[in-house]
Amino acid sequence: MESFQNLQKIIQQRRSIKPAQMNGRKIQDSEIEELLFLADLAPTHGHTEPWRFIIYADQALKDFCTAFSSLYQKYQSPEKFNEEKFIKMQNWHQHVSHLLVTYMHKGTNPKIPEQEEYAAVSAAIEHILLAATAKGMASFWSTSFPIYHDSLKQYLQLTENDILMGFISLGYSDWPWQPTKRMIPLNEKFSWRK
Ligand SMILES: Cc1cc2nc3c(=O)[nH]c(=O)nc-3n(C[C@H](O)[C@H](O)[C@H](O)COP(=O)(O)O)c2cc1C
């Protein structure tokens, strides 16, 4: 029962905390490795284990922010381009400690459909978000443009078997915690059959 209550508390406490709300305090690399170890324990049909992470920190994170914001500036359509967002992207590294660029590496087992590979990576990401919450870290899963643009895949040197799943920003925050909201009542999301 105690285990359930601990897990319940961690799940309830997990919130998306945007990079701008992170305070720049650094996480130790060893703690990131502990999160990755837990990510690797996600369920995986056929042991395809399709989760992959590129971990950016320090100067490499700064360089990534420069490159990513440049791709946004180059490829975002003029009507959607947002100067404020562009500046925020450039400054991510001032707030975020580590950025995990997360992608799905398609397995070769023909019995495992692609949606199950996405599902497994999502489960791995959730392990990271919950473990980060348990460690008092702030976390944010985002997919902002140009995440699905080929230019980013090229920059990251990914192959056609790799599908980007998001950025996980990790850091610390002084932001006052507030409970999350849900728009659709829970009882509209399940039905019992007995
Ligand atoms: C696949 C995925 C992609 C997301 N991408 C973004 C994003 O690009 N920008 C953003 O503000 N939030 C993004 N979010 C976070 C959601 O906005 C956030 O989870 C939602 O508002 C609920 O808040 P909570 O996580 O604090 O409960 C994403 C979440 C998921 C699952």
The CATH topology is given as: NADH Oxidase
> What is the CATH first-level class name?
Alpha Beta
Could you tell me the strand content as a percent range?
A: 15-25%
The rounded Rg comes to 18 Å
Instruction: Supply the CATH architecture.
Output: 3-Layer(aba) Sandwich
Into which percent range does the helicity of residues fall?
A: 40-55%
Structural notes for this entry:
The chain is α+β, with helices and mostly antiparallel strands and 194 residues long. It has a single domain (16-174), classed as NADH Oxidase, CATH 3.40.109.10. The chain has helices at 2-13, 29-39, 58-75, 83-95, 114-134, 150-156; strands spanning 51-57, 98-105, 138-142, 162-171. A four-stranded antiparallel sheet has the order 1-2-4-3. Helix 2 (29-39) packs across helix 5 (114-134) and helix 3 (58-75) runs antiparallel to helix 4. The longest helix is centred in the middle third of the chain and has 21 residues, at 114-134. The protein is globular. The two termini are 26 Å apart. Flavin mononucleotide (FMN) is lined by residues 15-16, 141-144, 166, 180.
